[in-house]
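Lab notebook, bench 4. The sequencing result for the construct came back, and we need a structural model before the next group meeting so we can plan mutations. Quick request posted to the team channel:

Model the 3D structure of this chain.
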Amino acid sequence: MKKNIPAIDKKDMEAVLKERKIDWNRVLLAFLIGNLVFFIGIMLGYFIGQVAKSSAISIEDDIKNEFINLEVQSQILDKYPCSETALDQLSFRLDEVGKIVDTLEKRRGVDHPDVLKIKSLYTLFEIKHALLLEQRMKDCKEQYDVIWFFYSNAEKTKEEKEIRDQSQKLGFILSYLRNKYNFVRVYSIDASIHLPVTSVLRESFNVTRYPAVVVNDRLLGEIEKSEDVEPFLRTATLTTK
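Done. Here's the predicted structure in token form:
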């Protein structure tokens, strides 16, 4: 026997339909919020890109200015080889450029073409500084300890990473010595820099592996601590900072 289905009142039906009616205001609001979030994401990405680009341009401008300063200071020292102020200023400028190169390496990568170009120019200034220092020792009867540090920071293979780690360890040791002694100068040559003059240096010092340390034209063996280098420093007993 069929049950009698109660009739639905017209007012009740309208109420049900009203509840089920799509809230277009909410739909429109959700749509606007979604597009706003998407737009903000695009603008944020663009803004970050512009900031990074501006930073890169700023760094490149700094490098150009520093290289101009280096060239001017080099010419001054070339004319007045015994000027202590000129040498200090040139050494300071060289250190400043080194810091900028380090910053570029961290931001763009050690193997970025632009970084390698800038680093090649920096390497040439390092070598020029070393030659001016050598001339100063002859003309001004002064003594300095010249350290050449041949290193690599490549990290594509396991072997390269091991060499990089060894290079970093040696870098810390040499930085310590540079800061400890007044008359110690350290010139770092990256294995990724392929210039005729760097090839001549490697051949002259018989550098066949990385990392390698040459102190006063003498290629040293294994180095574990600063004490392994200090016996080869001529000025170590003269003065410390």
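The helical segments are 10-20, 24-79, 84-108, 113-140, 158-180, 196-204.
Will bring this to the meeting.
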